[in-house]
Amino acid sequence: MQLESMYQEIILEHYRRPLHAGLREPFDAEVKHINPTCGDEVTLRVMIKDADGEPTLADVSYEALGCSISQASASVLADMIIGKTVTEAVAVSDEFLKLMQSRGGAEPDEEVLGDAVAFEGVSRYPARIKCALLSWMAWKDATARALSQQAPDDADTGERA
Amino acid sequence: MSLEVARIRKDFPILDRTVRGGRPLVYLDSANTSQKPRQVIDTLTEFYERHNANIHRATHELGEEATEAYEGARITVARFIGTADETEVVFTKNVSEAINMVAYSIGNATAGSGSGRLRLAEGDEIVITEMEHHSNIVPWQLLCQRTGARLRWFGVTQDGRLDLSTADELINSKTRLVALTQQSNVLGTINPVPQVISRARAVGALVLVDAAQSVPHGLMDVGTLGADFVGFTGHKMCGPTGIGVLWARRELLEEMPPFLGGGEMIESVWMDHSTYAPPPQKFEAGTMPIAQAVGLGAAVDYLSEVGLEAVRAHEQDLLRHALTTLAEIDGLRILGPTEAIDRGGAISFTLDGLHPHDVSQVLDDRGVAVRAGHHCAWPLHRALGVQASTRASLYLYNTRDEVNALADGIRQAQQFFRTA
């Protein structure tokens, strides 16, 4: 049985009890990403605030409709990066992308990835990599939009999606 | 006339292999693409080993053999779908290309000097249905954008049939073309195509039938159906990928402007204009998938030899077994007709609290190959209020044991995710 290598307990746990789920206000940018092969979708919002001169993810909220992998991935994503600076979060996201593209050949850095290392098994199933990456790609997009919209001395809020 | 499935299975080498660490393959994804019998594989090999050459233009013995094989396949396919005129059979790469060929040809007729009934004007209407595959939706959206025609569609009832209650209003004097599937790739529903055709005839509209899911089961006689265009594809009927068919009535093919321009589709070329070869060559620009066409001919021969009536009887038996077996699973909802009446062997379903991707993953782990997602019929899923579904589809080589393996796998998925 190879199923457990994909559906590790951490993933099932996040799937059954997703963290930080639901769309919250205020936010700087909102995006909706769709996986065209299965119709899974995630709507994701980010709010970025300045903390000691560093843009920081004050909140990441989401609504995910989809399989266990895509839902768990959204939960892990939010839990990992809320409170991190954008630079730190990008490092996590890059490491996660590397892991997902490894076809099971990577030695994931648990220091950087935390619970996201559990997705290593998913990287062996090409059809499911998109599921795991859906919310991460949405987050990247939302963050880029938020940063490009943000006026230098108006870091806060808005319905600017 | 019954079908000896054990003997049939021996014809399909791939059914012998194991997957996912030693599990026997249970292939329930034939509506996606069918497996290929040895007879088709051998035909492809023999063509490449013994007869390979370009067709129609090569002035040598191999060229003659290749041309004969390719044109022979056209005759075989023509007889299979019930036409005595093989020049009504145009080879394409798949159904999508066949439908696009008609849509672009109508667009070209509208833009240029095509004949009357192929020209669209602002306010003209094209009618499709909500249960179409994307390949019978998007080409018409594009055509409407190019021409100003209006796209309209039949709805679907909650039990997965076409809602024909609006037929007389939907198909009216503005309707120029009706395009619909003969058998839904998601619901298995076999549509009352003759009824729609007679309504279309009454208002002078043309009819295109997407027969991708019906021709593989021998459900096509263009002579009695009365449609104007029929599209189907080789790879869903034991043939190779890369080869499909557009059948159209001869006089329509003559009226239709070409779709793709290029080599072999011309009669004569000057620098500023060209004249075109007669159909079907007019629509077969460039070097065609020759071996694949020959392989499709072999697939048709194979299916004919097995006997389409026996194939359908076998599939219906499996379908009844599957519908009964799946109905016993808690939380399982079959999309489409739940009885084997006017219904083929594509069975899509949802499971309470379980996403199709997760279901198919558990099934795959047990060697059971199904499809998960919207099956290129997103609007249909929306109409039925589901995001995605899991689909098992049956063909001549499937067995009752395989249907049972599907049911066992579904129960295991429920257990794994603890939903039932």
Characteristic terms for this protein:
heterodimer, A: 161 residues, alpha+beta, Sufe protein. Chain: A, 3-stranded antiparallel beta sheet, 6 helices, 3 strands, 43% helix, 19% strand, globular, disordered C terminus, B: 420 residues, alpha/beta, Aspartate Aminotransferase, domain 1, Aspartate Aminotransferase, domain 2, 2 domains, 7-stranded mixed beta sheet, 14 helices
Looking at CATH, which topology of the largest domain in chain B would you report? Answer: Aspartate Aminotransferase, domain 2
**Rg over alpha carbons of chain A:** 15 Å
Taken as a percent bin, the fraction of beta residues of chain B is: 15-25%
Name the CATH class of the largest domain in chain B.
Alpha Beta
Q: Could you give the distance between the termini of chain B?
A: 41 Å
What strand order characterises the main sheet of chain B?
A: 4-10-9-8-7-5-6
Main sheet specs of chain B = 7 strands, mixed
* Strand ordering within the main sheet of chain A: 1-2-3
Mean pLDDT of chain A: 89
How many domains make up the 3D coordinates of chain B?
2
Number of strands of chain A: 3
The CATH topology of chain A comes to Sufe protein. Chain: A
Q: Which structural class do the helices and strands of chain B define? A: alpha/beta
Which residues of chain B sit in consecutive blocks of at least 5 with pLDDT less than 50? none
Question: Mind telling me which CATH architecture of chain A this is?
Answer: Alpha-Beta Complex
**Helix-residue proportion of chain B:** 25-40%
What fraction strand of chain A?
15-25%
Structural class of chain A comes to alpha+beta
CATH homologous superfamily (4th level) name of the largest domain in chain B: Type I PLP-dependent aspartate aminotransferase-like (Major domain)
Count of runs of 4 or more consecutive helical residues of chain B: 14
